[in-house]
Every structure is written in C-alpha cells, then in structure tokens.
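User: hey, got a sec? need Ferrochelatase folded
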Amino acid sequence: MSTGVVLLNFGEPSEPTRENVVAYLERIFLNNASLEEADTEEEARERARQLAERRAPGLIEEYEEIGGSPLNPQAEAQADALGEELDARGYDVETYVGMQFTEPFIGDAVEAARGDGVDQLVGLPVYPLCGASTTVAALEELKDETAERDWDVPVAEITGWHRHPLYNEIRAENVRRFTEAHGLDLTDENTELVYSAHGTPRHYLDEGSRYDTYVEEFCEVVGRKLGVESYSLGYQNHENRDIPWTEPDVEELVEEIGESGDIERIVVEPISFMHEQSETLSELDDELREEAEELGLDFYRVPVPHDDDRFRDVLGDLVEPFVGDFDPGYYQFRQCQCSDSPDAMCLNAPVERI
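Assistant: Yep! Here you go:
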C-alpha cells in the first residue's frame, strides 16, 4: 500500500509583490472571518479585502527587508528529508507540501497525490504546538479538498506533537548550543530567557483550543532541560482586528523587562516556530531587537532548528504508525481533543484511567 504524506503549513509569499501579499492576506482574513460578525459571505470577503489592503504595505516592507520569505523552501527540504527517512525505514511513501495560504496550496498537494495513485493520505501539520487556525484548520482543509474531488481515500490526521521526546531535546540543545557559542549563562540573574510564541485570538481559546496550555507546558519542560528556573513568555500578536489576543504581548513583556532595571540582556527563543519566516526574521530580529536595544538590553535571538538532522527522525516517528499500519497507541497517540474529527490523533490527549 502506498501512502501520501502531506506536510501542512501556513505558507508565505516568496516574492514580496503587492499582488502576492494582498492575495495572501485576503485568504488569511477570510479563513478567520468567524472572529467578526458578517451577515453574508460577500460582507466577509469585503472585510477580508479591507484588512488585507490595510496590512499589506507594512508586510511588504518586512518581506523586502528579509529578501522574501524562506519558509517555503525550508518546508520543501523537510518534506524531502522525511521522504528519505521513511524510505530508509522501508515504507512506500510520497511526500508533499501543502500550504494554507500560498502555493503550493493544500489542494495542489491533494491533486498531486491523487495523480500519483497513492492508497491513503496522512496529514502532518508542521506546527509544533496545536492551534485552531493552524493545525486543526489545515487538516480540515485537507479533508475538504479530497471531498471536493470525490476522492474516496482514507485520511489519517496528526495534530499535536510537541511532546515528542526527541523534539524537546532538539529545542533544548539548540538553545544550549547558541548560548554556549555566545558566552551566555541563562542562570545569570542579569540574563532573561524570553520565549516568544505565535499569538492567537482569545476567541479560539474560549472555544476550547488548548494552544496556550501547550505553549506553557512546552516552555516549562524546555526550561527544565536547560536548568532554568526563571523565564518569561510573550506572544507575537497580529492585532489587525479589534479583538482580544493572547497575553502578554511579547513587545510589552520586553518593555517591562527593560524598565525593571534588573536585566541586562535577553535571549529570545521562538518556541512555537519550526521555520525561519517573517515572524522571526523581521518581527524578532528587527522590530523586537530595536525595542530591546532602545531599552538598554542586549538582544540575542536563538535560530529555529528547521534543518536539524534529527528533525527527520521526529517526523518519521510521527508518521510511522500510520504508514506502517500498526496501532498508533503503541507510539502514545490518542484521540485528539482539539479536533472534532474522529480520525485526528495526537500526543497531547490525557491518558484514560480505568
């Protein structure tokens, strides 16, 4: 039996043209239209267009500063590495990349897999921490795209996986190597480890998403591995709509740290990212760095370990029970509580006590 593994991701425009960026933003805002009330789909589309037009100039400038987003080629490299890993494990697998908001779209990945004649699909979002508008939405779109093509193919869904032991070790070791290379000591009372996580609207948390819980527990575990007892956590929020977001905002957090006068330097770990993209290369490396240095803080940002050789092992472990046709429970997968789909499995759900 052949399997198509679709690595799902957000996507970003590789070329920062106005046409590309506005279309990209419109898709994002329309996908999250439930955050605001609209009487008709036409109203929702018009609101998405307005928001996109308003946000586009600033985002274009960010992309121009970083030379276009490197997210897509990094995602392609991860898909290739996973294909090689699964082939080495003896499985007949094709890997594909499907983006929520830029090419290649999730529908493109489904079309390619159907053309290759695979017998089943596995959806694997490359989002370390499960969120409603990322992980869950991407998997829902994957199933919708197969249904729209009347393709009756089994689809296995992998949701939360930040608890994978090797992934935790990769993140902790990556921070440790960075601090050692820069002569930094995270236990120094004048140095603060700052976790920066992608923000999400409070609406999704109120609706049952456990994203903030997962972020907090992951930060705690990585901190323990690093031997750090004190750290700070902030969220990178995109407040394009007048709605509540996760707190604290990382910019406000850094301002508080700087004004306290107790800290001389911060080490920023982008804990919820598995790619370098505008949120890391622009929002952190440029915008947050500038704010920190204006407050008199030395600024260090840990790179995202997207090309760590062991990451293919993590992805391979996540996919293996679904391509190897054995009980996912053997690898500690359980029914996901963040998704309504009966086919969604994760490493985050609590163990049922008998």
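Quick note: The first strand starts at residue 3 and ends at 9. Let me know if you need anything else on Ferrochelatase.
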